[in-house]
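Note to self: keep these together.
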Amino acid sequence: MYRPSLLQRTIARVAEKVDHRWGWDRLPAYPGLLALLGIRETLREDNLYDGFGPTPDPGPMPVTDVRTVDGSWTSLESPTMGMAGTRFGRNVTVAAGRPETGDRLLDPNPRTVSTELLLRHDFIPATTLNVLAGAWLQFETRDWFSHGHSELDRALEVPRPSGDDWPEDPIRMPRTVPDHTARLLPDGSTETFLNTETHWWDASQLYGSTREFQQAIRTGSGGTVRIGADGLVDVDPALLSSSGGADGFWLGLELMHTVFMREHNAICARLARTYPSWNDEQLFGKARLINAALIAKIHTVEWTPAILGHPTLQLGMRANWWGIAGERVYRRFGRFGTGDFLFGIPGSETEQHAAPYSITEDFVSVYRMHPLLPDDFVMADAARGSTLEELEFMSLFGLGSRETIDRIGIANAFYSLGIAHPGAVTLHNSPRFMHRLARTDGEHIDLAALDVLRSRERGVPRYAEFRRQLHMRPLRGFEDFGVDEETRARMRSIYDDDLEKVDLTVGMFGEKLPRGFGFSDTAFRIFLLMASRRLKSDRFYTIDFRPEVYTPEGMDWLDTTTMSTVLLRHYPELAPALRGVRNAFAPWQATA
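Structure:
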């Protein structure tokens, strides 16, 4: 059981009072950071719950200085913790996390919510970011979780709203794949669900969570993975899209897979020069370990500060990696001791806090940020800046994304996303193509409506209760939302003037944002808890984050590499567009 110190509890109590009275985001940077540390302590103590349930066989203990394919033995004390096929945990109590059933599940109609409150009419851009930020988020979530591919033979039937143009009535929406280790409810559903991916931050979207996936991407020589003559990943794209399903695959994901698999091979080359006696297995294992840590670092100190541009977060996220002492002190003197406050989480003691590590259902819900995707794209020439093609998203969607990349070129595709803005994560900005998305099996779904339904089905509380569970300031009424009067009136009508009925997605998208934030403070509370937990719970980011495990060359690679470094290593022709750009997820320079 997690027992914070007296000082930690005191800071947590004071932080909650300050947050309720003024808001942490209105404080100067360092007092704000102290408040966030207190809020995080409360969440660590009160908002981590184990999914329990049967666990797979982890097999015999392997070599312990590299990651296993299924995530087993990442914890040597609890070898099944976080491995593929184990249950999602929770950030809310059992009582608050009951799946909704019957009439409650469809009240209000999720298709109405999608059409009236979520659907984009005019594109609302997030002008401080580029589209790579959206592609990156999807790339990351495919590492962390998947509920498996839902089939429409187990469908929920949603009545078609009056005047809706959907061709069938009722609208059929697929249920979440049930947990085969749990008791079935009368309707065939379950109260718990399994993660088909490893829960760890281990780049499983690249390397897979099964032996079959991993073997398919490897060459069997020098630790490398398959890259074809066209510069793209030389495996069936259907395999790459298996994490999360082919229905979420698009050009942005293809680019991220390609560049980080090329980065894997570059790391292999560096290691092979230094350790010429190492075999294929040794090189692959170490390169994967380093590449996964690089992705975690980029997410922590580049992607997050890009999308959460508040001064306190600029300080806090870098402190997660380098500590309050900062990067300069770390580079000059290294770290002292195993505490994470002064010198960051990497290299500190491992800690599970109040529950064994897992991704949570609540984390999955707050990471649904589909408005980041535009409907329309301008593909441009990286050398001249001229327009090559103007395409709708569906031309870049699914396994056909490769055709577009083959036609316009990888560097041009990166450039095109780098100079374009994603959508703002707000109401009335969910992509039009998602309103009736053609799945790869020929069926159609409303993905925004499905987002709403998924949270209800999986027992994630609605917005007002979710905030209470996270110890946030209680809502006073619909006037607390940062929306215009027309939208507020629609919300009141759809939710019968009942604040308790407002869905989590709608509440978060309609929330007033802290300064510089690209998504809601409510979503951020889960992020605050789970972002550090993904590092702090993993021995490869704590006690085993050291040269003896990563190699001195690996530690140097991590210290000196950024997202821009990765892009320029493999596509040097992007240098003009990245010149003067401090963060690769901010808009790039348009070339003349």
